[in-house]
Amino acid sequence: MEERKINVKKIISAIFIIAIIIFMLIMYNKYNFNDFTKNISEKNKTTFTRDSEVKCSKMDSYKIENIDYHDAMFSQVVSVIPFTPYKVTCKVKVENVENKDTAQNGGAHICIEGTTERSEVINGTSDWQDLVFYFNSKNREEVNIGFRLGGFMKEEQVKGTAWFSDFKMEAGVANNDTNWNMICFIFPTIDVNVNVNGKNEHVNLQMSDSDISKIKANFERFETSIREVSNNKMSVNIKTVTIYEPIKTLSYEKESGYYVSSSDVIDYIDSYLKEDIYDHIYVAFRMADKQKGSDILVNDWIGLGGMDYAGIGFSNIRMPDDENNLAYEYNNLINIFPEEVFIHEFLHTLERNAKEYGYEVPALHDYAKYGYSEDRLQGLKSWYTDYMNKKINYNGKLIGLPREIYAYKPVNEKNFAYSTKLDALQEPANIIEHIRSLIKRIGKVFEMVGETSN
C-alpha cells in the first residue's frame, strides 16, 4: 500500500511537471518574438502575440492589435552594406484597420524605424497578401527594419489588427542609370470641405483646358531643359495623365498651409504606379481662382517638393491664383523658362536625397547667399545650372550636388534581377536554432542589466 502511494505521488508529480512544461511551451510560443523587439509609443493601447491559429505558413504569425488609435511595430536591427539596394518582403493580413483621420495614410506596412522610408500601406480588412519594401542603405551600416501598424507621423495612428509572416530580405545590385522615369498627374477639379479659422468652408475649383495644356507643355519643356541644366548628367522620360475625379481631401501643415499629399490622391494614382516603374511623381492642380473670389486655401507657393510616396519623390505643381499670371506662359518678352517650377521641385528631391546619402549640399533656397538672383526672363536658371553641376563658388571651393546623386534613383524590382538572399529576419528553423536564439536573447538581457548597473 505504501508503495502504491509513492507511485501515485510520482505520477501526480510527473503530470504536474508535464503540465508546467506544456504551459511554458504555450507561453513561449505565444510570446516568443525571436530577435524582434516590440516598439510602442504609448502603453496599454497595443498587444503583441504569436498567433498559432491565424497564419499563412507553418510558422506562427506575428500579431499586432491596436485596441485604440496607436503606432506599434515589431522591429529588428540588421547589418547592411552602404550604398546597396535592399528588398524586404513579408505576408500581411489585416482586420478592421482604420486611420484616426481618413485623410492620413497609416496602416500595416514595412519601414525603417526612425525614418519616413516605408512600403505601401495596407488598410481595412483583407486576407494574406504580399508586402514589398525597397530601400537603399545609403551611408548606413545597419538599419532597424520594422513591421508596423501605424505610421511615422503622429497623425497616422490606427486601430485594428495586423498579422505579419514569412519575412525575407535580399540584397540587390546598384546601377549607374541616370535616366529617370517621371509622371505628372493632372487633377482639373478640387472639391473639398476645409476648416478655415474655425469655420467650415466648401471649395470647388476647376482647371481650364488652357491650364491643362500649359502644364503638359511645360512638362515637355522640362524633359528637354533638364538635360541642358544638368549638362547631360541626367535625362528624363515623361508621361502625363489627366484624372477627372475630384480631389476630395487636402493635407495641412503650419508652414505650407493646405497642399496635396500622396494620401489625398493615392486611391486615384496607385493603379498607374503599379503598371510601370516611376522615379518621380508630380501632381498638378488649381487651388485658387481670384477671378471667382476663391483664395482661402492659398499659401505663398506655386510648387512644393521634398515629399515622397513609398520612396518615390512626390511634388505639387499649383496653377497661379490669377489666370492673368504668366508664370507658366512661354513668352519671349516676359518668361522663357516657364518649366522652372518642375526643375525647382525636383531639385528639392535631389537635395533631400543628397543629405540622406551623407553629402553636404547648399540649401536650394539659399541662392542669394551665394550671389545669385532671379533673372527677368529665365528666373533662377543660372543657379540651378551651377547647383546641378557643382559649380557654385563659395570661399574658393566649388559646391553643389555630387554627380553620383543622379544615379541614386528609387530602388525598384529592376535592382533585383541578380539578388542575394540574406539570413536577416529569418526565424529559427529547428530546435537547435531556437535554443541558440533563446541563449542569444538571454545574453542581451544580461548585457542590458550590466549596462544599467554601470
Can you walk through the features of this model?
25% of the residues lie in helices and 33% in strands. The chain has 454 residues and is α+β, with helices and mostly antiparallel strands. The protein folds into 3 domains: 1-31; 37-171, Sandwich (Jelly Rolls); 179-407. Residues 19-31 and 441-454 have low confidence and may be disordered.
What secondary-structure arrangement, pairings included, does this model have?
Layout: H1 2-31, E1 37-40, E2 46-51, E3 61-70, E4 72-79, E5 85-99, E6 107-112, E7 124-136, E8 142-150, E9 158-171, E10 179-186, E11 189-196, E12 199-206, H2 209-229, E13 235-242, E14 251-253, E15 257-259, H3 262-275, E16 280-285, E17 303-309, E18 312-318, H4 340-356, H5 381-388, E19 392-394, E20 397-399, E21 420-421, H6 431-453
Parallel strand pairs: 10-13, 10-16, 16-18
Antiparallel strand pairs: 1-4, 2-3, 3-9, 4-8, 5-7, 5-9, 6-8, 9-21, 11-12, 14-15, 17-18, 19-20
